[in-house]
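Record type: ASSEMBLY
Status: queued
Input:
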Amino acid sequence: MPEDKIVITGLGVISSNGIGKDAFFEGVFSGTSGIKPVSLFDTSLLKVKTAGEIKDFSPQQFLGPKGLRTLDRSTKLVASAAKMALDDAGLNITEENSRQAGIAIGDTLGSISSISDFDREALTEGPRYVNPALFPNTVINSPASQVSIKFNIKGFNATLSTGFSASLDAINYAVDMLKFGKAKVVLAGGVEELCIQIFLGFYKCGFLAGSSGAAGEICCPFDKRRNGVILGEGAGILVLETLGSALKRQATIYAQVRGFGNGFDAFRINRYNPQAEGLKKSMRLALEESGISAQDIDYICSGANSSPDGDAMETAGIKDVFGQSARELKISSIKSMVGECFSAGGVLQAIAALAAIEKQMVPPTVNYQEKDPACDLNYVVNQASNCKIDNVLINAFGPSGCNSSLVISKFNNN
Amino acid sequence: MSRRVVITGVGVVSSIGTGRDDFWSALIKGESGISKISSFDTSDFSNHYGGEIKNFNPEVFIERPKLAGLGRASCLAVSGAMLAVRDAKLNLEGIDKERFGVAMGTTMAESQIFQEVNENWVKKGEGAINPDLICRLPANVLSCNVAIEFGLKGPNYVISTACAAGNYAIGYAYDLVRTKKADMMLAGGADAFSRIAFTGFNRLLAVAPELCQPFDKDRKGMLVGEGAAALVIEPLEDALNRGADIYAEIIGYGLSCDAHHMTAPYCEGIKEAIEKSLQEAKLAADDVGYFSAHGTGTPSNDKEECLAIKKAFGGYAKKLPVSSIKSMLGHTMGAASAIEAVTCCLVLKNGIMPPTINFKTPDPECDIDCIPNTARYAKVDIALNNASAFGGNNACLVLKKYG
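Status: finished
Output:
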């Protein structure tokens, strides 16, 4: 049934290791790290000074010179990614089809800098002098809404704020809406911006690599030396549509979204569940919905972000779900190159999965040196690896308890 | 393939009353929850009134050690959820928690924590940022805290579509149960009283001095409020099997986006959501017995919403009973459409429609039947719950009387 199959026909990506599809694909396969000293704000008084910051980003290039003044960074990033995705998909949203087009964005912290800037201005200048044009940016859905306004998307407009899993959840929301017949095409993905507020927050909570202890700032998922996350930022947008719609407009199809699962660890906020119960459940449900077995997965695009407990939890979960085949699977984490992009993490992984399917190549986990007995699977490290890739499993999870898994498959119309 | 879905429990925490019965009796009496703001100093503002919940004690619902880790929005959300679970007479021991999920809507989630962080920062510098506060701040804590309270391991979502978020969350929960992706959902919305929102709406000149008067010719704006509501949503068959009291059946919802302006309401988008909701529910316009309006009391919202009602309902628009409970509660942001969904459930169940209070002078631009000032008895079979939001998000939910 062409209305039951959901396919990806366009992508737009802005990340610290590449702006645009070609640069991002090249970046993840060559193992280029986007993690560099932060320039957006002053880190001189902090022990941590690096992040996956997007440099050389010019929103004018994508959005034109006008109407950008009051938009916050998240909005500029996601709107630029949306423009790239629409162009890539060759999709023209017109008055005729705009009611059949929707948007679903994962974004949890994206408005934090806007809220903080607005409120601190009110506190220092007095509430009568704060700029009212900046108030709309304080609602969490403002980036998604600005994309709707810019590109005339009238079907629906959803923002999912589920933290680490937010952009996979947004992609799944989009798939659901397409399957329920509530839209013919949906822009889905996520965004998160780097700002002093989030950086300080993670730093003060002790989540950042190098924020305590002597190990320094390294982003090395699965490596024994790992000591916390390096923050990143990014935006990724996928154009999702029913197969029927894609065929009708003769779109180029990247891949098929096969299945999704999620599971909540009702454990304790800010602690990974060492039993990986929620993540095991999300992987199992995603496989089940995909109608494929664990052995059919060729590559796991991992959510490991160099946090000691998180990487070990995912490894334990994979062993449980995949049994014998766990050791044959190729696994890698692109977060080693782009950092932890939070709500945008899942969609960047999804785009890396599309790259893997297109080039039949697994991007590497960079910075890997020292083996950890708690993370002892077949990680693709430091260099990309060629192999047959039909089915990719993407994991997104965090210490808040939300776990989501998505299966993306090579498109095969039969 | 698709299951019938019903609402079997409701919980409300609001400025006019906490719990179904207190809330409902205040609503029907037309009591106002508006009072002088006490959670922060308003002397630098020209307005001083809002819908704060003055007598809410979270310790009634949440154990003290747990409370320390929760911001006010989470406290409101967990308390609302607890009331809903009790109201549904759920035996949590006998329920498959793997298939029981949570979907909460919000505008700004833990805004009071934001404010505390910012106040410390402004007064004492970056060094004063407290990590304990930061951990309680991300929007996703709302649904996580609800799920942790009851041990619920199913789908877990925070949907942040501003003031239409409650309806978005309830709509998605309905979809998940309908399509067997979950067997039970707690869905609703929560927002805490926000100085940031109060500042912003004041700067947009959208705040009324003291009274929220939806649809009145002399309406002067909205009032910021706070609150939470949660609904227990389950398949009809399960509800019947466990002998649950059924408030209403969810039979559809409609979403739309204006794609027009960040803050200005727009009748075409609102109309679109109403029409989609009727289509999905396979209803004619004159099947609708009660319309719970977004009705914020700003000049533009009420005008555009009334225009949308007239476009969507045609000749029936003037006969359709419409009310805005924001006249009593103020605008509870992400909680608003969830509290209004509870209201619709109780309208269907009890056969009384709440009034729009503070109504004095009819406005030719809002020439609808807004149930002025006094509640009205009427047997209602279908209620529509309409919501709009910043960003041009519109969501309209259709509830049907069961039995």
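Annotation: Chain B touches chain A through 78 residues (CB under 8 Å).
Annotation: The domain at 250-401 of chain B is CATH 3.40.47.10 (Peroxisomal Thiolase; Chain A, domain 1).
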